Amino acid sequence: MSVSPISCTVKPPVFLQIGETKTDTSRSGVCVVDVSLPFGKPVNIEEITFKNYYTAYVTVRLLRRSPGQEAAAKWWTALRDLPLMDNPHTEGGSQDYFSIHRTQMKVEPDHVVSVRLILRQPSSAWLTFNLEEIKIFQKEVSDWLSDLTLVDQHPDLEGLPDPQTVSSSIQQMWALTEVMQTNQTTASIGRFDVSWTQDDRLCPQEVLHASVSRFILVVLMFSFI
Amino acid sequence: MDEGTELCVTIGQIVQRLKGTHLHSQIERQAKECLHQPDIRLESLKEDVRSFLRTSGWERRLQNAVYRELHVQLPPSHPAAPPEHLKEPLAYMRKAQASWEKRVLKSLNSMSSELGVPLARRRPTLEQKELTNKWNEMGTDEPDLSRFRPVYAPKDFLEVLISLRNPNHDSSEEVSVRSHWGLIQIPLNVRDVPQLRRAYSELNMATGQLGIDDHAHVHPDLFESEYIQVGKKVVSEQDSAAAQQYSRQGCPTELRADLWALILNSTNQPQDVMHYEQLKAGVIQHDLLVDNLIYKDVKLTASNDDYYFVFEDFLYQVLLCFSRDTAVLDHFKYNSATPPKSYMEGKESGDDCAVVYPPNGVIPFHGFSMYVAPLCFLYNEPSKLYSVFREMYIRYFFRLHSISSSQSGIVSLCLQFERLLQTHLPQLFYHLRQIGAQPLRIAFKWMVRAFSGYLSTDQLLLLWDRILGYDSLEIVAVLAAAVFAFRSENLMEVTSLASAEAVLADLSTLKVMPLIQIFLFATAI
Known about the structure:
The complex is a heterodimer of chains A (225) and B (525).
Chain A: E1 3-5, E2 9-10, E3 14-15, E4 30-36, E5 45-53, E6 57-64, E7 74-83, E8 97-101, E9 112-120, E10 130-139, H1 142-153, H2 163-182, H3 204-224
Antiparallel strand pairs in A: 1-10, 2-4, 3-4, 4-9, 5-8, 5-10, 6-7, 6-9
Helix pairs in contact in A: 2-3
Chain B: H1 3-18, H2 22-33, H3 45-55, H4 58-71, H5 83-87, H6 91-115, E1 120-122, H7 125-133, H8 154-162, H9 193-199, H10 224-237, H11 240-246, H12 253-263, H13 270-285, E2 286-288, H14 289-300, H15 312-323, E3 341-343, E4 354-356, H16 382-395, H17 410-424, H18 426-434, H19 439-448, H20 457-470, H21 474-486, H22 488-492, H23 497-503, H24 512-521
Antiparallel strand pairs in B: 1-2, 3-4
Helix pairs in contact in B: 10-12, 11-12, 13-15, 13-16, 14-15, 15-16, 17-18, 17-19, 17-21, 19-21, 21-24
């Protein structure tokens, strides 16, 4: 199963403030990063990877639109407050690489239209915080095609006998007829005892035996189809 | 990555590293030879061979080799992380380390061109013969080393650490909750006394310690004799992990050499002796500029020391071979430093003409020989001494002179020392700061050498027992803070940096284990 990154646009981070005026002395501790996926193509997310830059906790929210004509899109929380740094005041984990797999998410990340990452950094020790190199991965489409071709190689044989046993029994039959041909007897079969030694090169018994054996084989083969 | 995947990756990496080693071929040969034995049956072949390997001790040797690999392995990482991220995750520290390395290499190159001495040259045959004859007494000749000077000293490195800044860190000058009085301004996560108490629980007052409970006036039956019996058993079992756990309470003098060799998995096999002989041949054939630096360093430090001057010849034999050992280059995978490169004569450009110089990638600084000197008390065979020193360097000592965010790195140790002092002896710290005697300026030289050359040797070896036992250099920072706590009354009365240094000049009478124990377990929180 291979995953490929989807081309998505990461919007610039929006730092949330309380109230109207933006003060310089107090820095915001919450930041929202919207990642918009290609329009009109809902995605089934496999994995989200990113590089941390001094973010302490991240919450992942997904905008899902179920398939259907008039289905409304709804926001779901996939992961709440995943800790990226052991201690928000110190350097541990501050520049590490992380990935969030779909198995870690609380809701199935299918038919996703947009992803919103809410970053929190409660410590005032840092001037800024963000996530870098955000990549969203989905399962590759071409995998489905290879699955189809695999199906072709194994046709459905319900109701039919196993080809292996048929071929081995036909082999046995063929061996029997060979034996019959080599062990020819002059004993007559009955009504078909005719000999044309002048015109035909073949001995009538041989012709009879050969044709009988071939007739038996043909009958047998027709019975298997 | 979940735990199951991490474990699989770890196992795969260790198997990869152990395949093709001498131990692997030895075990294979043993398994083949044991088939001649009558108690190996065909029906239960796998189990019988396994139990044979267990009873003959080969399984234990394999366990020790795996345990050693776990110590030098890279921590599990994200697949998207580039290799430099594995060496050091913080970008600004990588940059600082790179610019420091450039400075050191520039200093080395300028010394080479000023003095007209090439970085490396082949010795003429006569000189080679002379050196072979004099190999065991290299300390007797007195080459002219006055023109050479050490590439850098610990105090130069301290200035670099003081100037380290995180560009994203808010280090405003206002007094706040986060005000740090010390010199290191990097917010690394360091452990405080409550966390250290949990981590170093074997050092508490209720547990027997060598260094405290083996004192003359304590009856040996109370602790010492039984402890030595346990130690003898550990050595006979040849188990690395057990030896490491045992070493936390100290190693008895008579067992220390065996125990340390077991913990570091330094078995003196014939191929190790052969490797050492090859390095010796390399020393005789080629002369490196760093050899002169090593000579100068040994003459300045170890030869002047009352305890170590007798080992001068051993130090040359070990350090000269160490400079030529390319096996040391392996450790740069997890060291934030990068080995310096130099170009061969006549070929100035192109990466394929660049060679690592010196061959082991480590440029010695003033005091480097003190890492080897205490080991000379334990081992008198040069190849064994060499392999123990090399293993100790690639596990611990390299962290003391490279810039990294590791918990055992020198930056973390300095910060931990300052934090411990500021938290538990604030009056002393404030006073020293006011008189211009920042405590780190006095303690740094102790920590860079892991106290080698400052403590008396028996106390130093007890300290290094705990470094090996806990697989961490944190105890060095704790001891530095404990020394300040011990001499705090005298230090409160000094009025200048020089007098503060005079109070702390002589540590040779200190007993390290009582100091550490009191600081960790008797400090009021």
